[in-house]
Design a protein that fits this description.
The protein is α+β, with helices and mostly antiparallel strands and 131 residues long. The chain has a two-stranded antiparallel ribbon with strand order 1-2. Bound molecules: adenosine-3',5'-cyclic-monophosphate. The site of adenosine-3',5'-cyclic-monophosphate (CMP) has 8 residues, from loops. Adenosine-3',5'-cyclic-monophosphate binds next to loops.
């Protein structure tokens, strides 16, 4: 959950929705990204025109990270959060409900099983999450 949504107090509503959709929360924590961590996490977008703004937003306040479990989790979670741009996201999706713009879009979700593993490892150590 990105700083914009945390700041507006949407964290618990978002986690309720995630759990109601059948995702199990394996681990969860509040954290704050350093500039270096944000640049590393979004390294794939380095060089994009929105990169600087993305890093600024992602370091603007606390975030909440979670490792989730469900069969076909990546695809189903991406459906639950909706399109990157909240204005294009389907009715009832998390980004439609809690996001504003393509940059201020409330939440991130991994886009493949491989990236999910990497992203979980980015935030959690082996004694916090095992897979
Ligand atoms: P996220 O799923 O966290 O992955 C990369 C983020 O870059 C994306 O959500 C958006 O918040 C942000 N972003 C800002 N501008 C753009 C853009 N034009 N296209 C894609 N992503 C963008």
């Amino acid at each position: 959950i990105k700083p914009d949504a945390v700041r507006k107090g949407y964290t618990e509503s978002i986690f309720d929705k995630i759990q109601m959709e059948g995702f199990r929360i394996i681990a969860r924590k509040d954290t704050l990204l350093t500039r270096e961590q944000a640049e590393d996490f979004y390294g794939i977008h380095k060089g994009q025109p929105f990169f600087e703004n993305l890093v600024n937003l992602m370091t603007s306040g606390p975030i909440v990270v979670a490792a989730l479990e469900k069969s076909n989790a990546v695809e189903l979670f991406r459906t639950l959060i909706g399109k990157t741009n909240p204005q294009e996201a389907a009715e009832g999706t998390i980004r439609r409900l809690y996001g504003e713009t393509v940059s201020i879009n409330a939440i991130h979700g991994s886009d493949s099983d491989e990236n999910a593993q990497k992203e979980v490892r980015f935030f959690f150590s082996e004694n916090e999450v095992s897979f």
